[in-house]
């Protein structure tokens, strides 16, 4: 059993970063996630593990510092919240195009624009469908507890390096701010130069040794024939992720006649909604995507063969519901329920929506 | 032939291409300053024996392909963001030599914030700033450094202060920042200036080993295609007009400000 602590989701991100041997964090303050950098600065990991922590002049600079650090084969990360993540999109598409591993945490708040500082899930499209320009995907992990905030730092880096692809933890203001019991991971040392050489030695910009060719980190290719090939290579990588990296959780789906599809905070609410609905005799279960990209399309397809309807519960105007509908492909009714602008729906509201939109809507 | 072989001996060599420069044919226009500056950087890297320890950060602009010509590891940054890449690279690998190479649009316009903050933090990097008063790659549009009255494709009647603001002296701004140690303005339009410029670049790299702050080297340059002038005429035009507004020479040669001098304000 690892060390047990009562911690905020955002603080845990910082703690997990230090413990997993992260080399560098580059960030810019924004509510509701400033605790990440504050915790790191208070912990001073540069004196213990040697981790670099830097407050950049903007989110634009933070993500490009991540681009620089990732180019060197280092484990680097940044965190921000919605408006800041919008500013990072340029850097993120460069990182995806140059096929570099890194970790980004978005503690989502309501938008559009400056919006609100309250929790929301309205950045699903941005996280899962690209966000920046060009055909690319991030690996998107959706924690629904403080424990998962901890676990996904390690998992995020693992997947990022496995696929040489940026990974994003798509959290929200509720998960980031709430305190829960968390079992912390043991300390892993940062990679040595020799280990980096082994892991990323055929591409990282660590200085050109006499016995090898230059390493050039770039996303530029003016020859369209070659650029098309590079794009196909990226697409093959995404396909592999879709085949091998889908993660999800099913709760009370075995006897379910209806399914909630929900991630993050909404999934927590739906667990209570299941209880309320079942007390009323409505057999409902929950499919909780853990990876939003790759999306659990097949498990949803399978459930669609045996249930009567699905309700996608999101704190958005209906974004993930599009992927649920694509998976279900018209077999059963799929509707969306969500509150907007930073409002967290109540469990009863969710049950009522199920009754009105799916059960009554038959 | 026999005569030639007699002459072709190591001791008779007066000039040769450094091995740090690749054999790739440069894509730059004839007369463009980029090629000369590339050569100088490559020679400095060879002379300091740091080819295996140097990481270059190339910009978006005509020199986006700098990595094709200097045989070291490179990162091709997003437009204007080279100082951010360089900051992280240097901080994560403090014993390496890290330099950014940027044009005026990249460094002084879209990347002004990254430039100023990297210099203000006193990052131990070398920044090479090619100022040819023009966006070369996109076809000769106005840059922040374009002189007043200068015709570009976006100032067809000449740069006008009311419309376009003043030509920006980025190097003077950077020199005023406490994080910089060495700030200079050089050029490569004749043999003497090439020699001086090489010395400046070398100093910029040597400063990294001393860890005394940011070295910033502007190289006032020509863009023959953008200026629509043949090489010799462009050089003359630069000497007459550019040097008048962008005076040549060192602006600062010291160490970054002593951090101890700054604590007194809250004591
Ligand atoms: S357009 Fe100007 S800066 Fe670009 S290569 Fe040609 S002369 Fe050089």
List keywords for this structure.
heterodimer; A: alpha/beta; Rossmann fold; 2 domains; five-stranded mixed β-sheet; B: 267 residues; seven-stranded mixed β-sheet; 7 strands; globular; binds iron/sulfur cluster
Helicity range of chain B? 25-40%
- The low-pLDDT segments of chain A are none
Query: Uncertain regions of chain B: pLDDT < 50 for 5+ in a row?
Result: none
Counted by DSSP, the helix tally of chain A is 13
Stated plainly, the CATH topology of chain B is called: Rossmann fold
The coarse silhouette of chain B is globular
Output mean pLDDT of chain B: 96
Helix/strand/pairing class of chain B, anyone?
alpha/beta
Mean pLDDT figure of chain A: 97
Please give the number of β-strands of chain A: 15
Outline the biggest β-sheet of chain B. 7 strands, mixed
- The amount of helix of chain A comes to 40-55%
Assembly context of the chains:
heterodimer
- Work out the count of structural domains of chain B: 1
Hetero groups = iron/sulfur cluster
Secondary-structure element order of chain B, as H and E? HHEEHEHHEHHEHEHHE
Q: Per DSSP, what share of the residues of chain A sits in E-state strands of 2 or more residues?
A: 15-25%
Give me the strand/helix succession of chain A.
EHEHEHEHEHEHEHEHEHEEHEEHEHEH
Strand order of the largest sheet of chain B: 2-1-3-4-6-5-7
> End-to-end span of chain A in angstroms?
49 Å
Number of strands of chain B: 7
């Amino acid at each position: 059993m690892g060390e047990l602590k009562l911690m905020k989701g955002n603080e845990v991100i910082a703690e997990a970063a230090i413990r997993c041997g992260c080399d560098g964090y580059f960030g810019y303050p924004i509510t509701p996630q400033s605790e990440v950098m504050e915790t790191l600065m208070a912990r001073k990991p540069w004196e213990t593990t040697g981790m670099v922590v830097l407050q950049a002049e903007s989110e634009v600079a933070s993500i490009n510092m991540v681009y620089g650090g990732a180019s060197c084969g280092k484990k680097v990360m940044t965190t921000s919240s919605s408006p800041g993540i919008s500013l990072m999109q340029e850097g993120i598409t460069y990182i995806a195009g140059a096929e570099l591993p890194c970790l980004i945490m978005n503690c989502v708040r309501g938008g559009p624009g400056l919006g609100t500082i309250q929790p929301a899930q309205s950045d699903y499209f941005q996280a899962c469908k690209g966000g920046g320009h060009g055909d690319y995907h991030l690996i998107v992990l959706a924690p629904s507890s403080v424990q998962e905030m901890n676990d996904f730092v390690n998992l995020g880096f693992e997947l990022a390096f496995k696929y040489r692809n940026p990974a994003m933890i798509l959290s929200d203001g509720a998960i980031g701010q709430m305190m829960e019991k968390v079992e912390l991971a043991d300390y892993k040392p940062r990679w040595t130069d020799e280990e980096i050489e082994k892991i990323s030695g055929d591409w990282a910009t660590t200085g050109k040794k006499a016995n090898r060719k230059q390493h050039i980190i770039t996303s530029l290719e003016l020859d369209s024939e070659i650029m098309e090939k590079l794009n196909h290579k990226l697409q093959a990588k995404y396909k592999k992720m879709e085949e091998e990296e889908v993660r999800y959780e099913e709760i009370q789906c075995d006897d379910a006649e209806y399914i909630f599809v929900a991630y993050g905070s909404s999934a927590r609410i739906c667990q209570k909604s299941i209880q309320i609905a079942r007390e009323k005799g409505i057999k409902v279960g929950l499919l909780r995507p853990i990876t939003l990209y790759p999306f659990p399309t097949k498990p949803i397809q399978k459930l669609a063969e045996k249930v009567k309807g699905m309700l996608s519960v999101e704190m958005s105007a209906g974004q993930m519901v599009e992927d649920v509908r694509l998976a279900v492909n018209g077999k059963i009714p799929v509707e969306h329920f969500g509150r907007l602008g930073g409002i967290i729906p109540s469990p009863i509201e969710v049950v009522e929506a199920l009754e009105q939109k799916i059960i009554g809507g038959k | 032939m026999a005569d030639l072989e007699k002459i072709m001996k190591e001791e008779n060599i007066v000039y040769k291409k450094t091995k740090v420069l690749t054999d790739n044919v440069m894509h730059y226009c004839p007369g463009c300053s980029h090629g000369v500056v590339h050569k100088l950087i490559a020679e400095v890297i060879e002379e300091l024996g740091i080819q295996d320890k140097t990481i270059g950060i190339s910009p978006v602009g005509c020199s986006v392909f700098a990595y094709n010509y200097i045989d070291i590891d490179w990162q091709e940054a997003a437009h204007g963001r080279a100082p951010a890449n360089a900051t992280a690279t240097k901080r994560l690998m403090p014993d390496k030599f890290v330099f950014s190479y940027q044009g005026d649009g990249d460094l002084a316009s879209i990347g002004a914030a990254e430039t100023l903050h990297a210099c203000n933090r006193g990052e131990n990097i070398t920044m090479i700033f090619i100022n040819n008063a023009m966006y070369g790659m996109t076809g000769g549009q106005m840059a922040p450094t374009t002189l007043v009255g200068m015709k570009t494709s976006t100032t067809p009647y000449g740069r006008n202060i009311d419309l376009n603001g003043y030509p920006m002296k980025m190097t003077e701004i950077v020199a005023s920042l406490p994080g910089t140690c060495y700030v200079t303005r050089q050029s490569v339009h004749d043999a003497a200036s090439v020699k001086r410029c090489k010395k400046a670049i070398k100093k910029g790299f040597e400063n990294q080993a001393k860890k005394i702050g940011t070295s910033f080297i502007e190289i006032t340059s020509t863009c023959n295609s953008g200026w629509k002038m043949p090489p010799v005429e462009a050089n003359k035009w630069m000497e007459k007009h550019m040097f008048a507004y962008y005076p040549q020479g060192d602006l600062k040669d010291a160490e970054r400000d002593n951090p101890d001098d700054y604590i007194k304000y809250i004591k």
